Amino acid sequence: MRHWRVIGIAALLAVIGTAVPLAATLVLSWRMATAADEERLGRTADQVLGNTLDIYADAERTLQSIASTDFEPCSPRHIRRLRDLTVNSLATDNLSYVGGGTVQCNVWGLAETPFTHPPAEVSMPGGIRLGVNFSSDFNPRRLMMVLGLRGHTAMVDQTRFAAPLGHPQTRIEIFAPGGMPVQTAPAYLRPAAAPADEDHLVVRREANGWSVVATRPRQSFLDHLDAAKYALAPIALFLAALVAGLAVWLSRRRLSPRGELAQAVRNREFIAHYQPIVELATGRCVGAEALVRWRRPDGQIIRPDLFIPLAEDTGLIHPLTDRVIEGIVTDLGDLLRRDRLMHIAINLCAADLNSGRILPVLERRLAGTGIEPQQIWLEATERSFVDIERARATLAELHRRGHMTAIDDFGTGYSGLKYLERLPVDALKIDKSFIDVIGTEAPTRHVADHIIAMARALKLRIVAEGVETHAQAAYLRRHKVEFAQGWLFARALPAEEFIAFCRHNRAAHGSPSNVITLAAE
Ligand code: C2E
Ligand code: CA
Ligand code: CA
């Protein structure tokens, strides 16, 4: 269930993680493409406007030249001059002289055709009359711009204004002063005017009363997508692979035992259960050992031997120890403050002991709780004494603060008398394996006796672990073992059940007779 959820979330993340950057890339490149289109369109409009102004300036210059001569109109000299000026002008196609409403001569010589005015005319600086879209009888298909000054007219073929070849969908409109549209091609060649709406980019440029409007269809997002799809395919593939890889890596991490354990620590899935410790002589409960439990969200409880080794290897044991101490303070604080003879034993791991990390942790967590140091016992196995000197320093400091310390699973390690003498501990816990064989024919059946004798010699207290039968309890009682813990008395209980157990136990046996004091130095 949990795995499917992680995989589902990873897949969803993969899809989102691919789609979002891809869409962002697309939108961005579309915006950039639109901006580039607009800039290109602006450049085209600038060029067309520049060309337009040049043409007009050229025609104007030519006209001014001929109008300022004092030749006799239509004399051979005059006509030659008309011709020379036209040849030397880049834009002017014809120069003529009009008198009495008739064209009297032009570059081709004498003429006698009636003069017609262009459809619209405006006054320009220098006294020039300007008209556009004039079609002469002589060449009705050509549209001409006509400039008039003192009887002279200059004509310019309007196809000269035609825009240089731009984008095939670009439309250019040129307006002469007065807003007269200059038709650059005959009607049958003229493209329909582009609509100026949301779907079109429109750029307008103006100078000296002339203006140029350039229009082209705006690139739609879909068009851009279509154009960009091949360029985007490798990016999309790369992103998809990257995100998919990341999702796999993440889900692997989350699904790995280490990932699950780390997640469980964050989710506070670890709680302590408490196994009562009784005084054998009286049956009174004197405390408990805190044993950590992993309670999964589905209610399943996982035994510590399945996750403690992994927690130790990965360093997650530290937050776990902290959780146990926190649990004791919140769950059993009241009980411990009411009953000063009650203690709780905490299991330390090798790292807690060798680094001394447990010392500040305990100090901080117990400060202001009203729980006294002698009410917290600390257990460590012989296997956790990796660095004996540092372990000894930590044990000595715990002892100095008033905590009781015990060697857990005693007898399963390599401890000898000499070794034990050098360690500042207060108690030994005889391992369950030696209690199990009491009263049997097993070769290890006398180990418990030796441990008891050794503890006695060193003036250490003894706790027998894993007591399951009355016979075992009777044997231990006979050998003056003070404390025992085991299913005979109770299993590890949730906090409320342990508190209830203590209440019943007190009712039956009264308070413990003597305070558990520190072992003699
Ligand atoms: P341990 O410290 O030796 O704890 C005693 C174990 O023996 C507990 O197993 C307890 O439930 C079990 N036990 C007690 N009485 C009996 C009995 O009469 N019969 C039987 N068959 N078993 C009994 P548990 O709780 O599974 O803990 C296993 C080990 O996990 C502990 O061994 C201890 O080494 C470790 N552990 C538990 N809690 C912590 C913790 O908070 N921190 C650390 N570092 N280790 C812990
Ligand atoms: Ca223990
Ligand atoms: Ca033990």
Automatic annotation (TrEMBL):
The chain crosses the membrane at residues 230-250. It catalyses: 3',3'-c-di-GMP + H2O = 5'-phosphoguanylyl(3'->5')guanosine + H(+). It is found in: Cell membrane. Its EC number is 3.1.4.52. GO terms for molecular function: cyclic-guanylate-specific phosphodiesterase activity. InterPro entries: CSS-motif_dom (IPR024744), Cyclic-di-GMP_PDE-like (IPR050706), EAL_dom (IPR001633), EAL_sf (IPR035919). GO terms for cellular component: plasma membrane. PROSITE patterns: EAL. The keyword Transmembrane applies. Residues 254-506 form the EAL domain. Keywords: c-di-GMP, Cell membrane, Hydrolase, Membrane, Transmembrane, Transmembrane helix. It is a multi-pass membrane protein. Its main location: membrane. PANTHER family: CYCLIC DI-GMP PHOSPHODIESTERASE PDED-RELATED, CYCLIC DI-GMP PHOSPHODIESTERASE PDEF. This is cyclic-guanylate-specific phosphodiesterase.
